[in-house]
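Section 3.1: Structural characterization of target chains.
Under the original work plan, the team committed to producing a structural model for every single-chain target entering the pipeline before any wet-lab resources were allocated. The record below documents one such target. The sequence was received from the expression subgroup and is listed exactly as submitted; it comprises 332 residues.
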Amino acid sequence: MREKISPFIITIGASAGGLKAVTELISQLPADINAAIFVVLHFSKTVLGDIFVSRIQKATSLTCRIAKDKDSIEVGNVYLAPPDAHLLIKGNNVIIGHGPPENRFRPSIDVLFRSAAASHGEKVTGIILTGLLNDGVIGMIAIKESGGYCIVQDSNEAEYPDMPLAVLESIEVDDSVSLKKMGASILKSLDKARLTGTITPPEIVAESMLSEKVATGLDDVSKLGKKTIYACPDCGGGLWSIENNKAKHYRCHIGHSYSENDLLIKQRDSIESTLWIAVRMMEERKILLQKISKQNDARGLQGLSTEYHQKALDLTLHIQNLKELLFTVNDD
């Protein structure tokens, strides 16, 4: 009879090009694998997760499903994060979280990996596949520091190598292999599980607990890092700097979290949004100035008409300059 509770946890994170890679990887795992598998794929909120599950299921005899809150973790099952929700592990159960995005994503790879490290420590194998940017780096560091096993797809073959490269730049992984060899690498990690009693660092456990909540508090986040001068680009609150190994990330007391690169991207997006709002307001003001100029001209008030017309011309120049600045922001 199959053991219900899984002794080992395999966590997989992928982004751009990830569905194909995840399907190939899952197809390599044997039906009697002594582990439960958890997958976070970045995809649109509007995508139906059942379509992804159906595609993966066709390639494996393992049981594939969209994870549900309070699901029991069972060996031989593949749990896929639902759209627009975080997937977490706590003890022998699944938690579906609806807190803020981390690294601009929900579901976030970091959230899954960190929770697995906090809950199962050295019994976790973390895997990063193809993808853009660097979601998963902080999570892989958490797994590494908790005694787990870290594998990344060979960046030379990854369709989008950003995520594997970001991990390689931050920690010394246990294996960097081609997708075709990754199934064997996973089985090796289970055979050589280093159950040495490594204790998960308390800060990893603490931050994972924050991710379980819909919102956190100032007291909670202030214990994890140092207050910075930066404001959260999503909510405007303060950001705390949290350092893990070579990687640094930022978290606000609401729960938004960013790597340094993601923070730069969000800041750029916020600047662009603010500038477009300014352009819209200036365009509206220009139209009103032009209207008043015409009204005064019709009344024979040439002096006032000319004054308002000149203000509209000046504003047109400012709008042009602001649009040029916007194009510069987009090029950064």
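DSSP finds ten helices and 13 strands in the chain.
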